[in-house]
From TrEMBL:
General function of this protein: S-adenosyl-L-methionine-dependent protein-lysine N-methyltransferase that monomethylates 60S ribosomal protein L42.
Protein name: Ribosomal lysine N-methyltransferase 4
Single biological process term from Gene Ontology: methylation
Segments forming domain SET: 23-293
UniProt-listed Gene3D superfamilies: Rubisco LSMT, substrate-binding domain (3.90.1420.10), set domain protein methyltransferase, domain 1 (3.90.1410.10)
GO annotations of cellular component type: nucleus
Species per Swiss-Prot/TrEMBL record: Mycena metata
EC top class named in words: transferase
One Pfam family linked to the record: Rubis-subs-bind
Chain positions covered by the region annotation Disordered: 184-250, 460-491
Positions with biased composition (Acidic residues): 187-199, 232-244
GO terms assigned for molecular function: protein-lysine N-methyltransferase activity
Tagged with keyword ATP-binding: no
Enzyme Commission number, as recorded: 2.1.1.-
């Protein structure tokens, strides 16, 4: 725990407050370092406070000022995470001269996240959405096209002999992963905002983890993190609007682990500091958990490198937050429609109307309404389609038997995207010698396949009920016959 005690000394010497009588830090066997209650903690208790100037961001690092703020923006260093990554590299290169050297030393330098997996390991994630979301190629493009030119054109700030030591692609990925797994999106301290103390600013947006508004009016907004990777031209233009300067590394707050449904502490912001506050009473000896937004295992693995395994209501082990992402294109395939200009036109219109290109099936197994609306749109006759466009109206998500049959076909197609069967994967998980990355990949697939399989079974049951009821309606009704018979008899 040397790294932690050094970090705590630095934290307190730099103006941070830690309630040492209530909060300790230790290593948990299955989640690494984390916080523990040293005595019973009531709800609403301040566990620690981080002065805003201890946050590490493009606002607090001196680097953007040294480069020149105009140049920084011209080179688009304020878009995405590349600017913060460069600040973290530069602060590390400053060694003990950096205010954050003790903090940076304490951060992990290796990760279990799929960003660092081999091609063979990534194969295990086939069928899940993890691989396409990694954005490794786009991240590396940012490194080559934005970060390196900036570094090479400022030998005063980045001496050439330090480039192979501190500004490599490998370190770039490590810094990106530190941000992905540990940053917070912190609302700027707005000098225009005249309100005092607790009324500071607006609610922050979500980054790796959320920071909430001041406790009284705390209202959490979960929004996607503006990740450094995967930004195409359009997204980049949008991102320009969305400045990334609030994305901050927050010492100590990033030492808390999280598990589905276990949150008992949360980070709030005030005008001058951020505060980790208990959101429930916590018993002595219990872990102090933050929340990462109760994410599905696919996202936990991609961002944090771990998965959640809890007892589910049906007795299985898994993550209640698991979901299956279904590309809208699968509806086209399930309807046996050709990938023609006509089909493309409808899909493009769907997207223009605000429809998503991916629909999400959750563990409640409810058929996603967006999928129903999309299927109905694709099935419109030419006349109906033209009317829908003229009225600017996407069909209502009415689920009838025909649409249900297509939904089932979509889910069956989706299930086939995984190379192995659910049963095979369940057997695989019994093998205790399975390497960690493979085990986590199998856990992700199993969670998703269980949802798909159960949803298909549920639809099959609905279809067979509907079929039986149709048969009953078509057959002469027994009651009526009996009635006639009895009438006849009576006669
Ligand atoms: C914000 S940091 C928390 C502190 C971290 N445990 C450490 O040792 O520095 C997030 C990282 O903690 C680990 N972690 C958090 N919650 C976990 C959990 N429920 N199970 C396993 N690992 C977890 C993951 O490695 C994740 O990337």
């Amino acid at each position: 725990m040397d790294a932690v005690s050094g970090l705590l000394d630095w934290f307190q010497a730099s103006g941070g407050f830690l309630d040492k009588s209530h909060v300790g830090f230790t290593v948990f066997p299955d989640c690494g370092r984390g916080a523990v209650a040293l005595q019973d903690i009531p709800e609403g208790h301040i566990l620690f406070k981080i002065p805003r100037d201890l946050l590490l961001s493009t606002e607090t690092s001196a680097l953007p000022g040294h480069v020149g703020l105009a140049r920084w923006r011209e080179e688009k260093m304020h878009v995405g995470w590349v600017g913060l990554i460069l600040c973290m590299m530069w602060e590390t290169a400053q060694g003990p001269r950096s205010k954050w050297s003790k903090y940076l030393e304490s951060l992990p330098a290796t990760f279990d996240t799929p960003m660092f997996w081999s091609a063979l390991e990534l194969e295990e994630l086939k069928g899940t959405s993890v691989v396409e979301k990694l954005g490794k190629a786009d991240a590396e493009r940012e490194f080559r096209e934005k970060l390196l030119p900036m570094v090479q054109s400022h030998p005063d700030l980045f001496p050439p002999d330090t480039i192979p030591v501190h500004y490599t692609l490998e370190i770039y990925h490590v810094m990106g992963s530190r941000i992905l797994s540990r940053s917070f999106d912190v609302e700027k301290d707005d000098p225009e905002d005249e309100t005092e103390g607790e009324e500071a600013g607006n609610t922050s947006l979500g980054s790796a983890m959320d920071v909430d508004a001041p406790q009284e009016d705390a209202e959490s907004i979960h929004s996607g993190a503006s990740e450094h990777a995967g930004q195409d031209e359009d997204a980049e233009e949008e991102a320009e609007e969305e400045e990334s300067s609030g994305v901050s590394m927050v010492p100590l707050a990033d030492m808390l682990n999280a598990r589905y449904g276990s949150e008992n502490a949360k980070l709030y912001y005030e005008k001058d500091d951020l505060r980790m506050v208990s959101t429930k009473s916590i018993k002595a000896g219990e872990q102090i958990w933050n929340t990462y937004g109760d994410l599905p295992n696919a996202e936990l693995l991609r961002r944090y490198g771990h998965v959640d395994m809890l007892a589910l209501p049906n007795g299985d082990l898994g993550n209640p937050g698991d979901v299956v992402e279904i590309p809208a294109d699968l509806a086209v395939a399930a309807l046996h429609m050709a990938d023609s200009p006509i089909t493309r036109e409808r899909i493009d219109w769907w997207l223009e109307q605000g429809g998503d290109d991916v629909v999400v099936l959750e563990s409640d197994l409810e058929v996603p309404l967006a999928l129903v609306a999309l299927i109905r749109l694709l099935r419109l006759t030419t006349d109906e389609w033209e009317k829908a466009v003229a009225k600017d109206k996407v069909p209502k998500p009415k689920l009838d038997d025909t649409v249900l049959t297509v939904v089932r076909a979509v889910l069956e197609h989706r299930l086939k995207e995984y190379p192995s069967s659910l049963d095979d994967d369940v057997v695989l998980l019994r093998d205790e010698s399975l390497p960690l990355n493979k085990r986590q990949a199998v856990i992700v697939r199993v969670g998703e396949k269980r949802i798909l399989t159960s949803a298909i079974q549920k639809i099959a049951a609905q279809q067979s009920d509907a079929q039986s009821s149709r048969k009953r309606k078509m057959q002469p009704q027994e009651g009526a016959e009996t009635g006639r018979t009895s009438k006849t008899r009576r006669r």
